Amino acid sequence: MKKKILVIDDERTIRVLLENFLKEYVVTTKNDGLEGLSWLQEGNMPDLIVADIQMPNLDGYEFVKQLRASGFFKDIPLIMLSGIESTAEKVKCLKLGANDYLVKPFNPEELALRIELLLSHK
Is the entire prediction scored with pTM above 0.85? Predict the structure, then answer.
């Protein structure tokens, strides 16, 4: 059975890129953290989440906090995407509970490998 990945990013190009690149997975995309959380609360359970940090309505930090505070979703592997290349930013995300952090623009092949690695540890 194909693994499920939830991609949350307000940039349409990123969502389309990942949908096309991650063909071996069932990819669901949402525009922001609020949409992502609503989708999860409707009873959907992805195997992994890729989320942007800078988004309207509910940003990546708040999304991670709410995700990790939830009993149901706290163990879902999470990769953060960010346009900010800073160690402090990376550390902040990892401390909040993200499993990995990639800076945009990223190599889709690298993201696919990181996804594979996280899913193999699950």
Answer: yes
